[in-house]
Amino acid sequence: MPTQALHRPIDCDVHPTVPNMAALLPYLEPVWRDTVVRRGIDDLTTISYPTLNPVSSRADWRDADSRKAATSAAVLAEQALAPFDTQLAICNCLYGAQALFSEDLGAAFARALNDWMAREWLDRDPRLRASIIVPMQNAELAVDEIERCAADPRFVQVLLLVGSELPLGRRQNWPIYAAAQKHGLPVGIHAGSTYRHPMTAVGWPSSWSEDYVNQAPGFQSQLTSLIAEGVFTKFPDLTVVLMESGVTWLPAFLWRLTKFWKGLRSEIPWVADPPASVVRERVRLTLQPFDGPPDPASVMRVMEHIGSDETLLFSTDYPHWQFDGLAAIPEGLDAGLAQKIMAENPLRTYPRLRETVT
Amino acid sequence: MNVDVLNRTGVQPAASTKLAIADCDVHPRPAGAGIGGISTQLYPYLSKRWQEHVETFGIQYRQPWEKGSAYPKGQPQACRIDAWPDGGQPGSDLGFMAKQHLDPNNVALGILNPLTSGQGAMNPDLSAAITHATNEWQVAEWTSRDNRLRASVVVPYEDPVASVKELELRAGDANFAQVLFLSRTAEPLGSRKYWPIYETAAAARLPLGIHAFGYGGWPISPGGWGSYYLEEMVGHAQAQQSLLISLIFEGVFERFPSLKVVLIEGGMAWAPALAWRMDRQWAKLRKEIPQVKRPPSEYMRTNVWYTTQPIEEPDPRSQLADVFDWIGWDRVLFATDYPHWDFDDPAQALPLQMTEAQRRAVFLENAKSVFGIA
């Protein structure tokens, strides 16, 4: 790997915003464009990220007129890439396509969003890469979309949401993992939901704050599903990236999961390795939000609990508000580790990023 | 996790120097009790009408089976294979429990948490009848016969009016140490629906114990129902996090500042990271939830306790001390979960370097303090 490539950050989670439905219309096939117009489908912004919520868009990153953030490649470059001297950034568009109840409409919007991404973002800035949005409603349609987009090497990952219709480990989802593995695409699971089920194990929350904090336990139970169902056994070359999941919950979760694996592994005999080892080898997490302890001195204790310097991938989560100014690296993180997180770990995680770094 | 119990006879004498302990999660069970039916041991405390109802219609919960729980357990009744008394069922025989667990482990205080008491049954009147009978049974068969034991007031929590009525019957009764909920409720526990129960519990100075399991009808995962018992067992930690987020974000501890919450069998090592996450989001979002006046971690520090079993097992195990430091050693309550299969043996479960004061706090003093027992 060229030395220079290791010194400039690779941002593994930035969020282009769909400015409005009109921006997508040119990318919808005629029948679906007609559907959208005729039925008055004005907007599919998800409640996971309400437009004006302070966490959805940091105040100083909003457009003065529209009050929306990250609505063009130029503004993203100015606000998210230039300040960090970022060499590459992975775009994860969080529009509500996956939550549509019609799987055909979901697939149509996934195609439109991916084409919009290629034309309006990737074509306009050579530093940008993207995750493939897939219709999570139907694995066959999702595979079709992966095959269609994988021909473009700027698509580096398959994007899923942590709130799914079926637990992510379930075999109905396996064709997605097979296609991702075939093309060297990690599967990135991002915060957000199709809202087929509440984010919590105890029903629907009453505030956005509660829903958002509950994404972390949501990631935990989905990671249990992926491991218990044997996804990592079945797909030995598949990497899973958890994005905007929070970070510091990981060790305590693995301690409990590994303990119960010891006690109950006869129920899942295909999981031959301790879950903590599986995660260390095969799962990565983006850095923001880190959800770190208030005292920087404790940060490296948490990292010791995580037990690997390869687990974390640099991210700003732009334009979501996770930190102020340029403080994307949590205070207290060892400098050598921070250096690995910045570029080396992302390059190891994403084969398609390696192909394009010079 | 499972200690080697095959050669244990159940009459192992307590060493005279052994530290007396509190076990904050002991499960008594009326012989013959099950998910879909009730034990005739409860009949003395249950009207003929409900006896006949259960015999005819059974008990339905928000889960598929007439008998048995949603996920088949790892072994029968999820119990240690050596915990079955001759001809009886685990947790059904005080004499056997004393010989196998209370005496040899020098249990000075045992908190009883009955789990098959009709909590979460679809029929609210039936739930109220069985929980009431279970409370009567705990006193008649357990606490009145062994002064080391304290009962939990099981309440039909999905019916707060009936719950308050049951709780008022028990207020001031020293046989009872806490109010017991199961964790998987129909609504997040911060919901105002449950507040009358909290008000009554706080007034009666009874902590609210919230034990893993339940029948709220919601899957643990935001992706739906997992396939395996392992997922459910691991997932109790996620359920406990979610209910705690709800209690804090709905302002329950502002409204009832003296309410004590004891989280049982859901793990505890997740608490520091959850506190950090909540504090950071609260700092940005408090306008949405103005009822939360203080950083969420502060409520956890003043109103919440955690039982140890099944204690998380870091590698190296010494990392658990970091967790205790972050949570606060005064928040940790030792528990074994007797007679269940994932029993934590007090001699082996916490292989940590502890000061004598820390050891006494975790194994006994914290429990005496939270339950107000001299």
Structure, explained:
The complex is a heterodimer of chains A (358) and B (374). In chain A, strand 4, helix 6 and strand 5 (187-193) form a beta-alpha-beta unit. Chain A has an eight-stranded parallel β-sheet with strand order 1-2-3-4-5-6-7-8. In chain A, helix 4 (103-122) runs parallel beside helix 5 (139-150) and helix 5 (139-150) runs parallel beside helix 6. The model of chain A has no long low-confidence stretch (mean pLDDT 96). Chain A has a single domain (3-356), classed as TIM Barrel (Alpha-Beta Barrel), CATH 3.20.20. By secondary structure, chain A is of the alpha/beta class. Chain A starts with 9 loop residues before the first strand and ends with a helix. Chain A has helices at residues 21-24, 30-39, 73-81, 103-122, 139-150, 174-182, 208-213, 215-228, 231-234, 250-264, 275-282, 299-306, 335-349, 351-356; strands at residues 10-14, 88-91, 128-133, 155-163, 187-193, 240-243, 283-286, 312-313. Chain B is α/β, with parallel strands linked by helices. Chain B has one domain: Metal-dependent hydrolases (TIM Barrel, Alpha-Beta Barrel). Helix content of chain B is 35%, strand content 12%. Chain B is built from eleven helices and eight strands. Chain B has an eight-stranded parallel β-sheet. In chain B, strand 3 (149-154), helix 4 and strand 4 form a beta-alpha-beta unit. In chain B, helix 4 packs parallel to helix 5 (195-203). Chain B starts with 20 loop residues before the first strand and ends with a helix. The interface between A and B is large, with 71 and 68 residues.
